[in-house]
Amino acid sequence: MTAVAKAKPKNLEDTELQARTFVGDAWRQFRRHRLAMIAIGVLAVIIIGVAIGPLFWTLDPEYIDIVAAYQLSSPEHPWGTDSLGRDTLARALQGGRVSLMIGISAMLVSITIGTVVGLMAGYFRRLDNPLMRLTDIFIALPQLPLLLVLMMLFREPLKAAFGVEGGVFLLMVSVIGGLQWMPTARLVRGEVLTVKSREFITAADALGSQDGRILRWHILPNVMSPVIVAATFSIASAIITESALSFLGLGFPPDFPTWGRLLFDGKDYLTITWTLVFWPGMLISMTVLCVNFIGDGLRDALDPRLRK
Questions:
Q1: Beta-carbon neighbour count of residue 20 at 10 Å?
Q2: pTM above 0.90, yes or no
Q3: Distances in Å between the alpha carbon of 195 and those of 188, 204, 231?
Q4: What's the pLDDT score for residue 75?
Q5: What parts of the chain have a pLDDT lower than 70?
Q6: Which residues pair with 81 in a beta bridge?
Q7: What local confidence, expressed as pLDDT, does residue 11 receive?
Q8: Cβ(19)–Cβ(69) under 8 Å?
Q9: Across-strand partners of 87?
Q10: What are the φ/ψ torsions at residue 103 (nearest 5 degrees)?
Q11: Percent helix / strand / coil, the chain, rounded to 5
Q12: Long-range own/partner contacts, residues 73-79 (CB < 8 A, 24 or more apart)
């Protein structure tokens, strides 16, 4: 009886260990990061508000009411109005969709380019030096002046080809994503160099697996954890870059507001109504802060050295 009683907890413990998965362990570790959990809640509120808020707040963001201009706050306009009497809350909800879409799209572009370059450089020795030197060249380029030059050169041709909104959107996503892939490439290369020296890669190579199959089925799944973490920080960086370009007047036109464009439009009226700058600035800051906290939580959760 004593031996049976002692064996039971061991069997239960073995069963629990067998039932554990990588995703489950990562989620348990992630939940311990309180700031990351709070950030998920705040970011969810912002995304839901931006996505479905216009269905409930039905004021036209482009409706001009000169009589209601420069209001700080009122029952009709809780976030105030601009110099033309347009509702700031409605314009912030509309602009948030564009800002978030640019952040996510630019992240996909930069992560895709960085992952491909890192995989090629880390796995193929003959490509390592050329690709890494190319990465170093892009890192050495002054980012903001190059962004401004590219926006000025290609803005009008893309507008003529895809329309004002479509052309500017494609240009901003391409330029921002095309100039932010370098940290991901160096990170992925380092992970590939570590993974490809392990026994299961040597075994796959000895069995005659092609390089493409090894990269796709053996190496890429093992480097996705740092890529996911890098993706969260890339979203935050893309949102800040888009806001900076819009603030400099190189983003969308005034009748197509983004959070950065709202800051640009409101800076001249800061002494009259501070709400024009406060609300879009707060949305940008909260979104970037939440994404960074989530990235910190994912980094801790996906690091095997921190999981028990």
A1: 10
A2: no
A3: 10, 13, 20
A4: 86
A5: 1-20, 22, 303-308
A6: 87
A7: 54
A8: no
A9: 81
A10: -60, -45
A11: 80, 0, 20
A12: 73/275, 79/275, 79/279
